[in-house]
Amino acid sequence: MAHPDGYEAAGELLRALASPLRIAIVTELGAGARCVHELVDTLDVPQPLVSQHLRVLRGAGVVRGDRRGREIEYSLTDQHIAHIVADAISHAGESRPAKRAGRVAPSRPEQPDAAPPAARAG
């Protein structure tokens, strides 16, 4: 059984990743270290926004910055984080067809006892 501290740490990691732009940044950094201007060009978002999200990721220990002359090169602290994000993207893509068809897949299996009392009495 996982230790409660592990749950807390996982929650902090997932909160740090809870932004489409931060997910995109982690995906890019999973392919290799990048400077802010490279992320700005690749993701086509303003530099202050990229810097703001990098601060969040750095504060959560997801990325680190290493000075390279006048620039800071960002990289993942652990490549495993890129795999977590890739799995989340893949899983989210698997549930897309049901949503596009106007149906939302149930979040949990239906339970026989979940029917209203009137429906069970029949």
Write a structural description.
This protein has a single domain (4-91), classed as Arc Repressor Mutant, subunit A (Orthogonal Bundle). A three-stranded antiparallel β-sheet has the order 1-3-2. The radius of gyration is 20 Å and the shape is globular. The chain starts with a helix and ends with a helix. It has helices at 4-16, 20-30, 36-43, 47-59, 80-94, 96-100, 117-121; strands at 34-35, 63-68, 71-76. It is mainly alpha-helical. The chain is built from seven helices and three strands; from the N terminus they run H-H-E-H-H-E-E-H-H-H. Pfam families: HTH_5.
Amount of beta strand: 5-15%
Helix content: 55-70%
* Structural classification: mainly alpha
CATH architecture: Orthogonal Bundle
What would the principal axes of the Cα set say about the shape?
globular
CATH superfamily: Winged helix-like DNA-binding domain superfamily/Winged helix DNA-binding domain
* H-E string: HHEHHEEHHH
- Give the N-to-C terminal Cα separation: 42 Å
CATH topology-level fold name? Arc Repressor Mutant, subunit A
Task: Give a quick precis of the structure.
The chain is mainly alpha-helical.
Give the SSE layout.
Layout: H1 4-16, H2 20-30, E1 34-35, H3 36-43, H4 47-59, E2 63-68, E3 71-76, H5 80-94, H6 96-100, H7 117-121
Antiparallel strand pairs: 1-3, 2-3
Helix pairs in contact: 2-5
